[in-house]
Amino acid sequence: GLGAAARHKEHAHNLVTQTDLDSEALIVAALERDFPGHRLRAEEGGDRGTADAGAPLWLIDPLDGTNNFAHGIGVFAVNLALTWGEDLLLGLTYDPLRDELFRARRGGGAWLGGRRLAVSGRAALEESVVATGFPYDKAQNPDNNLAQFAAVMPRVRGIRRMGSAALDLAYVAAGRFDGYWERGIQAWDVAAGILLVREAGGLVTDSEGAPMHWNGGRIVATNGALHPHLLGCLASGRRGPAR
User: Fold this and answer.
1) Partners of 151 in the beta sheet?
2) CA 58 to CA 92: how far, in whole Å?
3) CA dist., res. 94 & res. 211, Å (int)
4) What angle do helix axes 187-199 and 165-173 make, rounded to 10 degrees?
């Protein structure tokens, strides 16, 4: 349950609970049974399945938001994506506490239950609510997103730090957030959400504005209209204050 005992992974701020492991085991077993010719890449268990590098690849995050879960904070999700080569084919983000299943299929739109999702229509940063996150090594790494956070904060209606990249992206797709950015994230964190946002009519790039690959890194996702404005704010944060 919420507040479950956790152990550290490679960093004191990066936790794994038994629920992460149990969730992953259930997902892996189901995919291995139903898609025996596919490859699997899971956050906790690494690569499994066929050795055929050309086979479709499932990306599995069994519990995105483990720190929230371990502290009894009800913001977390299960995240799955299916890729084939460079292409994202399917994305699923499930919020079990709210029973919300966000899903997208390439060319088939993004959906929440029976409702087709569309990004928001807001075009001014001053009217927007955006989300972000911080890396686990934020205390040691000077590239910790604090300067960018400070640059964006005065320009927007609000910033939210949910603690789940998967839900941040799902909320952009649903029009609840107008934008999201983060650095240092992994493929299983964001692959499903990239497809969700794109299929909902939004835009996803890296921090320089180049097309975002599903394998992670620096990500900026918006409703499209806000994209150049948010990119500009983030760039000003990297440059530092004007002299």
Assistant:
1) none
2) 11
3) 25
4) 0
The two three-digit tokens of residue 234, written as one number: 């983030």
The 10s digit of each residue's pLDDT in 144-173 is 899 999 999 999 999 999 999 999 999 999
Q: How many residues does the chain have?
A: 243
Residue 118 carries which side chain, given as an amino acid letter?
A: A
Secondary-structure percent of the chain, ordered helix, strand, coil, rounded to 5: 30, 30, 40
Kind of pairing, strands 100-105 and 87-95? antiparallel
Distance from the Cα of residue 145 to its chain's centroid = 16
**Three-state secondary structure call for residue 104:** strand
Distance, CA of 130 to CA of 221 (rounded, Å): 10
- Per DSSP, the three-state class of 14 is coil
User: 156 is written with which tokens?
Assistant: 């927007």
- Report the predicted TM-score, pTM, of the whole model to 2 decimal places: 0.91
Determine which helix (DSSP H) or strand (DSSP E) holds 194, and give its type and residue range: helix 187-199
Dihedral sign of CA atoms 69, 218, 128, 151 in order? positive
pLDDT digits (tens, 9 = 90+) for 11-67: 444 568 889 899 999 999 999 999 999 999 998 888 988 889 999 999 999 999 999
